[in-house]
Amino acid sequence: MKTLDITQIKEYLPHRYPMLLVDRVLDWEAGKSMTAIKNVTANEEFFNGHFPHKPVMPGVLMIEALAQTAALLSFLTTGQKPDDKSVVYFIGIDGARFKRPVVPGDQLKMEVQILRNARGIWKYAAKGSVDGQLAVEAELMCTMRSATDASQPAGQ
């Protein structure tokens, strides 16, 4: 079993608080899959406005947490670390479904599998669950570009 703690995760993801949404990697296999967790706490910034009377993790942040897990798997698979010369773009979300709310005190368990990597486009099957109950699922796509080409649309 291969794991990563938060210090190791920060070596591969450029995100920082409050946008770093992966707390620990439980297991991963290069070129195949990763299982990671996000501990959802009551003092998350987004709960101040979403919603004060009934705090719920925004769906877009659940998708972002899955995308960060996918990016982490891609970096580990290729043996690359992000630098000032490259940008990772999130280029697609297909079939996103939200099955249950994620609330303070939950632990979002994220599972990502690489479906394919062709011509610099990575595609993943991703799902997140809480206590064994599916919370979110989607197919995600991303690509890596040089920072000098970052203004160009994906696929060019």
Automatic annotation (TrEMBL):
Catalytic positions? 50
* Alphabetized Pfam families for the sequence: FabA
Tell me where in or outside the cell this protein is found: Cytoplasm
Instruction: Please state the Enzyme Commission number of this protein.
Output: 4.2.1.59
Belongs to which family? Belongs to the thioester dehydratase family. FabZ subfamily.
Provide the function of this protein. Answer: Involved in unsaturated fatty acids biosynthesis. Catalyzes the dehydration of short chain beta-hydroxyacyl-ACPs and long chain saturated and unsaturated beta-hydroxyacyl-ACPs.
Q: Which PANTHER family match?
A: 3-HYDROXYACYL-[ACYL-CARRIER-PROTEIN] DEHYDRATASE
The protein, known as: 3-hydroxyacyl-[acyl-carrier-protein] dehydratase FabZ
- Native organism is Undibacterium arcticum
